[in-house]
Structure formats: C-alpha cells, structure tokens
Amino acid sequence: MTTEKPPVGYEDDLSAYGPVVFDGVCGKPIGWGFKIVRRLGGERFKSLAKHGDLVCIEFGVWCLVTKKLTPVEAVAEYGKVTKLEVGKFGGFRFVMYGDTKFRNKWLDPRGVEALVLNLAESGVVVTAPSPPPRPRKKKDRP
C-alpha cells in the first residue's frame, strides 16, 4: 500500500510524504509515510489505520507508515545477508545486509522464503548469544 498522497479527508492532519521511521542502529530509513501533525480524535485515529501502519516514533509523535523497506529491497540496496543474530529462544536481534546492521524486526529475513534458502546456501551464520551460567544451588547440610 504505497502512496505519496495523504488519505482523503486527512490532508490537513498529515505532513508531506517522506521517510518517517529510521533503524535504531544504522539510522537508515526503513519506513515512509506521513507524520501526524494534528491531534486526531479516537475514531479518526483508528480509521487512519485502514491506510497503513500507525507507528509511535517518539513520545507523543505518531506517523502513518505506508511503505516499509522489505528484506528483498534491503538485499538490493545494501547487499546480501552477512549475519543474523537471534536470541536464545529464536527471537530476532539484528541482521546485517552487507556491512549495514539493522535492528528493526521488519527486516528479519527468515520470513522470506527466497532469502531463507539463500541464507542456508551462502553459509550465513545464525548466532545466538550464550546464556549466562546458572548459579549453583547450595546443598543443605545437616
């Protein structure tokens, strides 16, 4: 749902189209759309969600994201996946496309079949940090 025009009826409530969400590690744009520049009532705010994803980008600042950088586009822009780190239960931590590190889960390549196959073929190491050692239980002595 990519559009550079604000939804009908929201023209005065939204900024001009442009990058609105940036990755927290590399700072590259990963979401495009409109900042909400005027307070909307609850029903208008909920209704706006029909046109894209409503994302809080900082305390009290919301935006309507109509275009997200996809893993396939990231490969084309920054290079193939070179590293993927997951948590001990498999949760996404970060991914590197070429030399560029992204932390936003929108760019997790595991949901894209072609990239998952490419990960296996290219030998990309999926790492998980080692869990901290468990403390030893003290034995009760009589």
**Spatial strand order of the main sheet:** 1-2-4-3
Determine the strand fraction and express it as a percent band. Answer: 25-35%
Run of helices and strands: EEHEEHEEEHE
The helix/strand class is alpha+beta
Main beta-sheet annotation? 4 strands, antiparallel
Find the count of extended strands (DSSP E, 2+ residues): 8
Task: Estimate nothing, just give the exact number of structural domains.
Answer: 2
Measured as a percent range, the helix fraction is: 10-25%
Please count the helical segments.
Answer: 3
Describe the structure.
This protein is of the alpha+beta class. The protein folds into two domains: 18-68, no CATH class; 71-127, no CATH class. Helices cover 18% and strands 30% of the residues. It has three helices and eight strands. The protein has helices spanning 42-48, 71-78, 113-122, and strands at residues 18-22, 29-35, 53-58, 61-68, 81-86, 92-97, 100-102, 126-127. The strands form two sheets. Strands 1-2-4-3 form a four-stranded antiparallel beta sheet, with no helix packed on it. Strands 7-6-5-8 form a four-stranded mixed beta sheet. The protein is flat, with a radius of gyration of 20 Å. The chain starts with 17 loop residues before the first strand and ends in a 15-residue tail after the last strand.
Descriptive keywords:
142 residues; alpha+beta; 2 domains; 4-stranded antiparallel β-sheet; 18% helix; flat
SSE blueprint:
Blueprint: E1 18-22, E2 29-35, H1 42-48, E3 53-58, E4 61-68, H2 71-78, E5 81-86, E6 92-97, E7 100-102, H3 113-122, E8 126-127
Parallel strand pairs: 5-8
Antiparallel strand pairs: 1-2, 2-4, 3-4, 5-6, 6-7
